[in-house]
Amino acid sequence: MRLARVAAIVLRQYYLVRGSLSRLIPLFVWVAIDVVLWGFISRYLNGVTASGGAARDFVPALLGAVLLWDFLIRVMQGVTMAFFEDVWSRNFLNIFATPLRIPEYLGGLVLSSVATSAIGLLVMVLVAGGVFGLRAATYGGLAPAYLGVLFLFGIALGIVGAAVVLRLGPSAEWFVWPIPALVSPFAGVFYPVSTLPAWMQAVSRALPPSYVFEGVRAAASGHPGSVSGLAIGAALAAGYVLLACWLFARVFRHAVRTGLIARYSAESVS
Predict the structure, then answer these.
(1) Is the separation of the CB atoms in 158 and 113 below 8 Å?
(2) Selection from 192, 180, 118, 191 nearest residue 151 by Cα
(3) How far apart are CA 80 and CA 192, in angstroms?
(4) Residue range 178-230, pLDDT digits in tens
(5) What is the value of pTM for the model shown?
(6) What is the spatial distance between Cα 165 and Cα 161, in angstroms, rounded to a whole number?
(7) Does residue 219 form part of some domain?
(8) In a domain, 270, yes or no
C-alpha cells in the first residue's frame, strides 16, 4: 500500500467539501439539531419525573446515546458519501484505470470518514456540553473505547454499503440509507437489550453497538461498564471490518471480471 495514493483519495474529498457549502454544512448542522432536540426532550423527561416524586437525570443516558449513535451514522456516511461522489461524477472507472489498489482506495475512504466524523463529533460534544452540561467524564475511562468500537462498526457498515452499490448499480444507493434504522432496534440504543424478544437479543449479541450502549447506560446510572462486554464488541467490530473489506474486494473482482465496471451507470441493476 502506498500512502501517497491513499492521501490522493483524501485530498480529492477535501477539495470537494471545501468547494461546496452543500457538502460542508451537513457535516455539523444535522448533528447539532439532533443534540438540541434530544437534549430538550431529556430535560422535559427530567421535569416530568421530578414532579412525580421520582427524580432521574435522563440527559446522560438519552443524550449520550443520541450523540454516540449519530457518531456511528456519520462514520458510515463518511465512507459511503466519499464513494458516492465517485459514482455520481462517473469517476469510479477513471480511478481504477490508475495503478490504485483496493486497500489504498478503501484506506482513503476511511481517512476521509475520520475527518468528517471528527467534525460532527466535535460539534455534538460542544453543543451537548455547552447547552445541556453533558460531560465525557460521566461515562468514565471507557468513553474513548466506546467511540472506537462504534467507529470500527461504522466503517464496516460504510464499506458494505459501498459494496452493495458497486454490485447493484448507483440506483441501489437507496438500499444503503436505511441501514442504520434497520440496525438500531437490535443495538438497544435507547433501551436495554433485555427488553427485546429472545430472537432479537440473539441478534443484538452479534452487534458491537449493543455492548457499547449497555455500557453507556450502566455508566449513566453510576455503575462501571463491562470491560469484558466491551472487549467482545471490539472483537466483533474488528471482525466486521475485515469481512466488509473482503466483501468489497470480492464484489470489485466480480465487476471487473464480468465487465460490469465498464458499463457502470445509473441504469445498472444487475
Answers:
(1) yes
(2) 118
(3) 29
(4) 898 889 889 888 888 888 899 999 999 999 999 999 988 888 777 777 888 99
(5) 0.83
(6) 6
(7) yes
(8) no
**Among candidates 108, 128, 114, which has minimal Cα distance to 76?**
114
In a domain, 88, yes or no: yes
Q: In Å, how far are 47, 132, 202, 239 from 244, measured between CA atoms?
A: 44, 37, 21, 9
The amino acid at 62: L
Residue 268 lies in a domain: no
Query: How far is it, in rounded angstroms, from Cα 79 to Cα 259?
Result: 24
Exposed (0-12), middle (13-18) or buried (19+): which is 127, by Cβ within 10 Å? buried
Cell of 247: 466483501
Q: How far is CA 58 from CA 85, 106, 118, 129, 236, in A?
A: 39, 39, 25, 15, 29
Q: Is the dihedral of CA 216, 208, 161, 11 positive or negative?
A: positive
Structural domains of the chain, count: 1
CA–centroid distance for 115 within its chain: 13
Q: Which grid coordinates are listed for 188?
A: 438497544
Structural domain including 20 reads 3-263
Rounded to whole angstroms, the Cα distance separating 84 from 165 reads 9
